Amino acid sequence: MIEITDLHKSFNGNAVLQGLNLSIPDGKITVIIGPSGCGKTVLLRHMIGLLQPDRGRVMVDRVNLSALDRVQMNAFRGRFGMLFQQAALFDSMNVFENVAFPLREHTQKTDGEIQKIVAEKLALVGLTGTETKMPSELSGGMRKRVGLARAIALQPKIILYDEPTTGLDPIMTEAIDNLILETQRKMNVTSVVISHDIPSSFRIADQISMVYKGRIVESGTAEAFRNSKHEAVQEFIRKGEGKG
Amino acid sequence: MTLLLKWIPFLNVPLELLGALGRWCRFVWAAVTWSFQPPYRWRSWFCQMQFIGVQSLPIIMLTGLFTGMVFALQTGKTFAIFKMQNLVGSTVALALAREIAPVFTALMVTARAGSAMAAEIGTMKVTEQIDALRTMAVDPLQYLVTPRVIACIFMVPLLTIVFNYIGCLGAYVVGTTLLDIPSGPFLRHLYWYLDPDDIFGGLIKAAVFGFFLATVSCYKGFRTEGGAEGVGRATTSAVVASSVTILVVDYFLTTWILEFFTSHRH
Predict the structure, then answer these.
(1) Number of folded domains that form chain A
(2) CATH number of the domain bearing residue A215
(3) ipTM value > 0.90
(4) B216-248 burial, b for 16+ CB within 10 Å, e for fewer?
């Protein structure tokens, strides 16, 4: 369970998060939506301790992230996997080395075992046979899928997705959505997806929360979210579905 | 404070420098503390040693050779006025060991490897690869900075030894062929005047320069903002800041080394 209470964050005097509260249930897919620049990614970065709150707290499995020192935080991050918006693959390593990286860093597995796990994760994301390719040789969608394979290599309990479908065509968007659902089903993880893609959000979410003006203005199941009375939510859904 | 800066604008520059120095000190402290914590990535350390040390050998040998040759030529022509050409070998060897070899080696490594460090880390910063390391529970300072700092501390002194040797060889070739200095007196004076302390003092300098060039270059990489332009700015800034730091630190180190290593000969 991720519990965010009264979260405040400013950059150079510009208040991005202004007392945000949010509960993210275990074993579900929670999609956080909102207009560009509203602080979705800032919120996600707080969940994994990449940013420290100015005020408020982020509790992950009853652990207050602000109370951890650098070494403890480093160890705590072992329970997370994160897929970045641009995948953030290490461009000096090929696909195999990228996916094998967390295994080599945090396990004592033999080369044979690592090869087996990497092949398994690449098969899960539909990229068997791409082991020797460099990130520069991959398309945007393929990079994201390799990023996901790397994120799940250590069987994390929580997976964070930062705009996984941004910049992808509708077919690839659907493929990534299916991948998120399949990963969720097979690994029973807690998934947090940052998105501004409304159809995709409705397709995959167990819970949808909307960030608006630095706060969560609506949070609930896809159905409850669709029936929200909040004006900003309705406008966002309307425009997101191309009806506005 | 803002009001004060508004009225006294010239305070901006020293305050910014002081702020940068403070941030660099914190960065160095964090990097040093991580160096002593496992895991120790030996493979990464040796890779960096190979890149910073072995791959810098050609440029260091070339620079050392021509520096020794030109220095022998200049001192030879001047010493000829006093008929003291036999001292060319010892003069060049002393200057190389104490000053020229460590400073030139550090400057060449800065230009070749320091710029690469800043550009590589800067690119990783702007493409979120450094954040990706953090999310995979790998500290970027330990993973990226520690191997580079350790490699520089070990390899810059080793390259300095090569610079010294090749520089002396260059001076010997010019001295014995162009300046007509007999080989015997050239080498005798060189051995007579050059002490192991001179070489050792130069190597200490080289190790310190290695530490500064690596930490300044990595720090500049970590502070990169923006896209390709930011990486370019960080790279330039890393080379300029490292070079200036090396020259400033050289003065203070020289004062200390002259006092403690060579004072017994005065």
Answers:
(1) 1
(2) 3.40.50.300
(3) no
(4) bbbbbbbbbeeeeebbebbbebbbebbbebbee
